[in-house]
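Format notes (please read before filing issues)

Several people have asked whether sequences and structure tokens are stored in separate files. They are not. Every record keeps both together, in the order shown below: the sequence lines, then the token lines. Line labels are part of the format and must not be stripped during preprocessing.
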Amino acid sequence: MSGERTINGTTGELIEAIERADTAEALVRATQRLAFHGEALADPAGIACLLQVLNFNNPGAAVAAVEGLIRRGSAAVEPLLQGIDPHNYGARAWAIRALAGIGDVRGLEILEEALATDVGPSVRRAAARGLGGLDLSGLEPARRLGTRERILRALEEGGQDGEWVVRYAVVAGLETLAAPLPAEDAMRGRATAAVGARSDPDLEDTAVVRLRAGLALQRLSFSPSPR
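Then the structure lines:
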């Protein structure tokens, strides 16, 4: 059984263990080895293998693959974007989680679409958190401003989601987006107002969301240095 054999750590052998796994448990263990093996992080073949695991009907292995893709950071973004299969909902949902965790701005459009339209609350929740945490530091100022506007608009609309877990994540995303902005920034004001709406019992009927929004408002009451 491949899951039981000794893996010496080369990327090829780690991939082979995944290909040879003949039980669900063996597949999970083999995927975890590839996902967290430092020497395999930069290998495109390892990324391709982890992407393939997302297509398998094995949630444990998919979780490990997502964590491994997040660890690979920007190197995994283009393969993720190119490999998303619109006809395979499960794999697409896992890929969105990976993009959200990586935080690369190239995932913006996919995350926007997921928050607005995905049927799975857990996917919309991941998209909301991912949008708020996108790294915009590498963009030139004009593009950064426009991208931040897109993110803010998506999160404002996401605040109306019918699932409380998504609204909770939207609050977290808004806080992350707004926190680095100066107090006088108009987008910080809009984000704070959107968070405030989720703290209002007349607008938000779920106590845990109101509590999270209240915490965000407390944190945003401090004025950090602009990025």
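For reference, the curators noted about this record: Residues 1-101 form one domain. The two ends are 52 Å apart (CA to CA).
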